Automatic annotation (TrEMBL):
GO annotation, biological process: translation
Pfam family, one: Ribosomal_L4
Region (Disordered): 26-59
Subcellular location as annotated: Plastid, Chloroplast
Complexes and interactors: Part of the 50S ribosomal subunit.
GO CC annotations on file: chloroplast; ribonucleoprotein complex; ribosome
UniProt name for this protein: Large ribosomal subunit protein uL4c
Native source species: Thorea hispida
Gene from which the chain derives: rpl4
Alphabetical keyword list: Chloroplast, Plastid, Ribonucleoprotein, Ribosomal protein, RNA-binding, rRNA-binding
Biased composition (Basic residues): 41-52
Alphabetical list of InterPro entries matching this protein: Ribosomal_uL4, Ribosomal_uL4-like, Ribosomal_uL4_dom_sf
The protein's role, per its UniProt record: Probably binds the 23S rRNA.
């Protein structure tokens, strides 16, 4: 396999994984009743001939008020499956392609004593991270104070290392990974 074909294949897998994640976010719950599902309408409203009216077989016809919907929405079970190895490869490819924007930091950098946004903001300034970029912080486990401190900053996203996903990594311009988070990523995604 040539290098060009390998690049095409990995970008294809990243794309498939992204589409899979987007498809699984849909609710697909919109539903309307067809003429067979609307209550009533079992009897013919008038006889076929001799009334001068147009023939009718049910009062729940889509042509009638209170009738069923002809081509209304129905819940769609779209099975868009992706293999676990493909998903791992997609995340590995993304992390490899973004390696210039990844910084590994000690775990104690995000041990914030109080859930204050200002403390997190100062911590990021000490690490010389520009605050206008979209920042993804990957931690081994979510600390309550860190989560509460980051909620008010619109460009910061915190995610656990074992819940890594394509959309979060793709959207991030700068990725900060704690040391324990990196060990978890290596254990789960490089297997």
């Amino acid at each position: 396999m040539t290098l060009k074909n390998h690049r095409k294949q990995t970008t294809y897998i990243v794309h498939r994984s992204l589409i899979n994640q987007l498809k699984h976010q849909y609710q697909n719950t919109a539903s309307s009743k067809t003429r067979s599902e609307v209550r009533g309408g079992g009897r013919k409203p008038w006889k076929q001939k001799g009334t001068g009216k147009a023939r009718a077989g049910s009062i729940r016809s889509p042509l009638w008020r209170g009738g069923g919907v002809t081509f209304g929405p129905k819940p769609i079970q779209s099975l868009h499956k992706i293999n676990i190895k493909e998903k791992r490869l997609a995340l590995n490819t993304l992390l490899h392609n973004k390696n210039l924007s990844i910084s590994i930091i000690p775990d104690n950098n995000f041990n914030i004593d109080y859930p204050k946004t200002q403390l997190l903001y100062k911590q990021l300034q000490l690490m010389e991270v520009k605050n206008d970029n979209k920042i993804l912080i990957i931690v081994n486990q979510k600390y309550k104070n860190l989560y509460l401190a980051s909620r008010n900053l619109k460009n910061i996203d915190i995610i656990q290392a074992d819940h890594l996903n394509i959309i979060s990594v793709l959207n991030a311009e700068k990725i900060l990974i704690t040391e324990n988070g990196l060990l978890t990523i290596q254990k789960i995604y490089h297997a």
